[in-house]
Amino acid sequence: MFDTKIRVAAACAALALAGTYATAADVDYTKMTPQELAEYLIFEAKGYKFDAQVQTEGATAKDRLVQDELQKVCTETRNKPSPEQAAKISAAARESIKYPEGDIKLGDWKKGRELAWSGFGYRLDPNFDDHKKSAPGANCYNCHEFAGDRQGGTIGPSLRNYGKLRGTEQPVLKLAYGIIYNAHSMFPCTRMPRQGAKGLLTEAQILDVMAYLFDPESPVNKE
Amino acid sequence: MLRKLLVAVPLAAAMAGPASAGPSDDPAAVLQALIDSTSSYYLTQSEQNLMMMPDNPALWSLEEGEALFKTPRGPKNVSLEGCDFGKGPGVLEGAYVELPRYFKDTGKVMDLGNRLIHCMKTLQGFPADDPAVKEIHGSKSDHMKLQTYIAAQSNGMPWNPPMDHPLEKAMRDAGEVVFYRRSGPFDFNCAACHGEPGKRVRASVLPYAQDPKEWTKAISWPAFRVGQDNTRSSQHRLRECIWQMRYPPIVAGSDLSIALLSYWTELARGQPAIIPDMKR
Predict the structure, then answer these.
(1) Which end of chain A, N or C, is surrounded by fewer C-beta atoms within 10 Å?
(2) B186: chain A residues, CB-CB within 8 Å
């Protein structure tokens, strides 16, 4: 892997010296492994518009394609990490969680309901989500259903009666906070985004979403 | 109705037969035969669209595309009838279900969009920045009209992307890697939505990539997107998935996009194309 990266890099450097840039014709795709070719198509052959505007200051569009350790392991194992890998992933995920100071206090379930419903945020060109005009949502309904009033997706488990079934003791709340913050702590290589660890939701927003799940007055627990 | 029945009978025979089956002229019959042969919420999720198939607005794109295709155009004032889509100059029947494929004259694996651009430039002499060449989205674009006409000449025929050239295999295999590669702020890959049967994202039933009978409808483009009131292409579908995944915009026609299309076409191998289709 390392060796071939150098090979590709050397080929690119040679092309740069010759005053041309790498296109399909310059590099022999058939000499690369599928993984090498995929990386090449993404990062060298201009497969994505890396000059696209992004919402996060100081970040670039290209950053989004660079895999971190978790993404690499979950890609390589197609979301089925070995027991050793899984243990490492969940340990690192637990490490990443920053809990609120003191007891966990539920936020506003009405705000949480709208956050859970909103699919706005972080999308780029050709229809850029301007976070200055509207704050990003939590996308929960894409994959989960919460109550009968609005249809949710089925990629994740149903969260109906979440609080009613579990109660609101601190250990229960702490567990739920951890799952929303970084779900790999409990489910290594889950498809659920790392809402807290990746800075997608603030602590206050997570507590609002949790209120939607746990508050006895929330529609989630009213059925 | 009678016309429908007349089409349905030979089609049923054709679908049971070998891959040499000829095109059918009724996408609705192709879809119905699939629905009858399997159980899939994805195939049947929009009853309204199924009913609308005979009046599919993409049929206008198809008709306009035929006229455009046969009209001498561009600085060289020639029609596209001399364009080789892989089965010889002017041969359209079954060409689309064998794309993307390797083309010797360019040394590249190309999809329909790229091949059209190639012929517009070399055969018709259009400059690269001519609207005919560069406007690739929307029912009003020449591309969508031409693509719909050309692709419809493969309606009912089984997807059969050639894997004879090493580049075709390399692109397909790299496409598979990209399909499963997790990245972006949400850690998504294509399999996040298309890796399990019978799942929904909100109200939309998602096609499962490993079920060819379902997947053939998912990749049957051009199709009329009812929610967008436009005839859309494979490249447009790809662009929207990538956007929802929070990735940087994918470059239409890039080798990356071709690799993904090569893999997704492979996944539908053997199942009949439904073109033009209707989608939500």
Answers:
(1) N
(2) 122, 139, 193, 198, 200
**Grouped pLDDT means (10 residues each) for chain A, 223 residues:** 45 41 69 98 97 96 98 98 98 98 98 98 98 97 96 98 98 98 98 98 98 98 92
Give the domain CATH number at B242: 1.10.760.10
Measured between beta carbons, the chain A residues lying within 8 angstroms of B175 are 38
SS3 per-residue string spanning chain A: CHHHHHHHHHHHHHHHHCCCCCCCCCCCHHHCCHHHHHHHHHHCCCCECCCCCCCCCCCCCHHHHCCCHHHHHHHHCCCCCCHHHHHHHHHHHHHHCCCCCCCCCCCCHHHHHHHHHCCCCCCCCCCCCCCCCCCCCCCHHHHCCCCCCCCCCCCCCCCCCHHHHHCCCHHHHHHHHHHHHCHHHCCCCCCCCCCCCCCCCCHHHHHHHHHHHHCCCCHHHCC
**Domain total for chain B?**
1
Answer whether B170 touches A (CB < 8 Å). Answer: yes
Distance separating alpha carbons of residues B74 and B132, to the nearest angstrom: 9
Which domain, by its residues, includes B18?
1-280
Mean pLDDT (whole number) for B239-248: 98
Please tell me the distance in Å from B165's CA to the nearest CA on chain A: 10
Q: What is the pLDDT of residues B101-154, one digit of tens each?
A: 999 999 999 999 999 999 999 999 999 999 999 999 999 999 999 999 999 999
Query: ipTM of this predicted complex?
Result: 0.91
Name the residue facing A126 among B167, B181, B243 (closest C-beta).
B243
Task: Find the CB nearest A193 among B167, B175, B187.
Answer: B187
Q: How much is the pLDDT for B25?
A: 78
pLDDT in tens, B40-87: 999 999 999 999 999 999 999 999 999 999 999 999 999 999 999 999
C-alpha span between A22 and B216 (Å, rounded): 34
Enumerate residues 186 to 215 of chain A having a beta carbon within 8 A of any beta carbon in chain B. Answer: 191, 193-194, 198, 200
In the prediction, which pLDDT does A15 show?
A: 42
Which residue from B minimizes the CA distance to A42? B256
Active site residue B83: no
Q: Is B171 on the interface with A (CB under 8 A)?
A: yes
Tell me the backbone φ, ψ of residue A198, rounded to 5 degrees: -95, 5
The answer to whether the CB atoms of A41 and B178 lie below 8 A apart is: yes
CB contact under 8 A, B191 and A78: yes
Residue in chain A lying closest to B197 (CA)? A155
To the nearest whole Å, the CA of A16 is away from the closest chain B CA by 20
Structural domains of chain A, ranges and CATH numbers in brackets = 2-75 (no CATH), 81-221 (1.10.760.10)
Residue among A4, A29, A76 with most chain B CBs within 10 A, to mutate: A29
